[in-house]
Design goal:
There is one protein chain. This protein is mainly alpha-helical. Helices cover about 60% and strands about 0% of the residues. Among the domains are: about 160 residues, Orthogonal Bundle (Citrate Synthase, domain 1); about 110 residues, Orthogonal Bundle (Cytochrome p450-Terp, domain 2), CATH 1.10.230. The chain is built from 20 helices and three strands. Strands 1-2-3 form a three-stranded antiparallel β-sheet. α7 runs antiparallel to α9 and α13 packs across α19. Bound molecules: carboxymethyldethia coenzyme *A. Carboxymethyldethia coenzyme *A binds next to loops. Pfam families: Citrate_synt. It is an enzyme of class 2 (transferase). This is citrate synthase (unknown stereospecificity).
């Protein structure tokens, strides 16, 4: 067993004892009342999950084990000469609950390089899809094809003791994280670069090697990937990709099955796919205006047109956040430092000045501020990654860090099969009339 796995086991045993104690002594404590509107409207605000890796504050944004994004950018180990956090460090933090040392990050980089082999049948499964298929479809197909490698599924089929679930889930999660950049890069090069592939460089860090396999050797792009892979990794447990991975995992589906399910949720336009929609929306606006940079008035007109067509403004709004997303701010700071004169970036900033007052004036949008997806595309375009249908795959590779660390915790804490109660509208009508009661 590697030392990080051993450390995780110690932490998990400690927390397991505390959770058992909490449930035994306070299990009947009511957390909150649930309203009828919450049940119909996406369960907003209902506390129904435990996720150890991160916690979201509506105003401050995400904290990973208590650390905000600016704190991570300051405290996390970096590559020599680099300024952005290494995602390996964030994974360690989410899994173990402590800031990593340089050696921990190096150990994870090495482990992931060693575990990164992808069998040929995975590439063959992706190749079976037409090149026109969406990259997210290819991505989940690739992950599903890789499920043949699950040690959890094999051990379960042979008859596994529940005490060992966490151990196999840990190994599967480590293997899957190690292999995802290879699968994602394969999809990118197949679809957009004439099927010419680039072999991994085992001496690079996880995100640096991903950039290399995509075909981007610019150090600025590698730094962007380190930041990108860090800030997209986790957003507590209730978002669609994290919740789906957790839900499917609760049936003891292995890491591959659970993660693929989560990725199908990430591929929805109200969630991760919004990152492609943002850049598409900006490019379409530019095209409609005949090219060049739009004025604030032209952006305002385009936003109103979007709304009048019954569409959402992509990259704005959030189910929980009520202020500008610190993940947006981190990308804005990166842009100010590295590419402040970029035309598309300047448009993103002008959109940021224009959209919130308009959404606010509608009176119904709970959060008029930008989310993580409002900025990322412009950064990628700057470095030449213009194929925006691929953007959600990048989000997905990063999201693996959070949802798979959580899945390890789910199995280590022995979480139950998830199965909330549902009712019919007929039941609701009878409930309102006082004829039936909630269980
Ligand atoms: N543009 C236009 N209308 C918006 C809006 C936006 N950006 N954000 C919210 N609204 C609308 C909703 O569609 C809803 O309208 P109806 O009452 O007519 O159905 C109303 O405002 C209230 O919605 P809300 O409570 O403020 O927001 P929700 O929690 O229901 O939804 C979200 C949150 C993210 C789906 C929504 O803000 C949205 O559609 N944003 C655009 C898509 C996007 O950027 N998604 C990415 C989110 C981050 C991520 O997961 O990656």
């Amino acid at each position: 067993m590697g030392y990080i796995k051993e450390k995780f086991k110690v932490k998990a045993d400690e927390l397991n004892a505390e959770v058992k104690d909490l449930v035994k002594n306070h299990g009947d404590m009511k957390i909150e009342d649930v309203t009828l509107a919450q049940v119909y409207q996406g369960m907003r605000g209902i506390t129904g999950l435990v996720t150890e890796t991160s916690l979201l504050d509506a105003n401050e944004g995400i904290r990973f084990r208590g650390y905000s994004i600016p704190e991570l950018r300051e405290k996390m180990p970096k590559v020599k000469g680099g300024a952005e956090p290494l995602p390996e460090g964030l994974f360690y933090l989410m899994l173990i609950g402590e800031l990593p040392e340089e050696a921990d990050v190096q150990h994870l980089s090495n482990q992931w390089a060693r575990r990164s082999h992808v069998p040929n049948h995975v590439f063959a499964a992706i190749d079976a899809l037409p090149v026109s298929a969406h990259p997210m479809t290819m991505f989940t197909v690739g992950v599903m094809a890789l499920q043949t490698e699950s040690t959890f599924a094999k051990a379960y089929a042979e008859g596994m003791n529940k005490k060992d679930y966490w151990s196999y889930m840990y190994d599967d999660s480590m293997d899957l994280i190690a292999r995802l950049p290879r699968i994602a890069a394969y999809i990118y090069r197949r679809k957009y670069k004439n099927n010419v592939h680039i072999q991994p460089n085992g001496l690079l860090d996880w995100a640096g090697n991903f950039a290399h396999m995509l075909g981007y050797e610019d150090e600025g792009f590698k730094e962007l990937m380190r930041l990108y892979m860090t800030i997209h990794a986790d957003h507590e447990g209730g978002n669609v990709s994290a919740h789906t991975t957790h839900l499917v995992g609760s049936a003891l589906s292995d890491a591959y099955l659970s993660f693929a399910a989560g990725m199908n949720g990430l591929a929805g336009p109200l969630h991760g796919l919004a990152n492609q929609e943002v850049i598409k929306w900006i490019l379409e606006m530019r095209e409609e205006l005949g090219g060049g940079s739009p004025t604030k008035q032209q952006i305002e007109d385009y936003v109103r047109k979007t709304l009048s067509e019954g569409k959402v403004v992509p990259g704005y709004g959030h189910a929980v956040l009520r202020k500008t997303d610190p993940r947006f701010t981190a990308q804005m700071e990166f842009a100010k430092k590295h590419l402040a004169d970029d035309e598309l970036v300047k448009i993103v900033w002008l959109v940021y000045e224009t959209v919130p007052p308009i959404l606010e004036s509608l009176g119904k949008v709970k959060n008029p501020w930008p989310n993580v997806d409002a900025h990322s595309g412009a950064l990628l375009v700057h470095y030449g990654l213009v194929e925006y249908e691929f953007y959600t795959v990048l989000f997905g590779v990063s999201r693996a860090l959070g949802v798979l660390a959580s899945l390890c915790w789910d199995r280590a804490l022995g979480f139950s099969l998830e199965r909330p109660k549902s009712v019919t509208t007929e039941w609701m009508k009878q409930f309102v009339a006082g004829k039936v009661e909630a269980e």
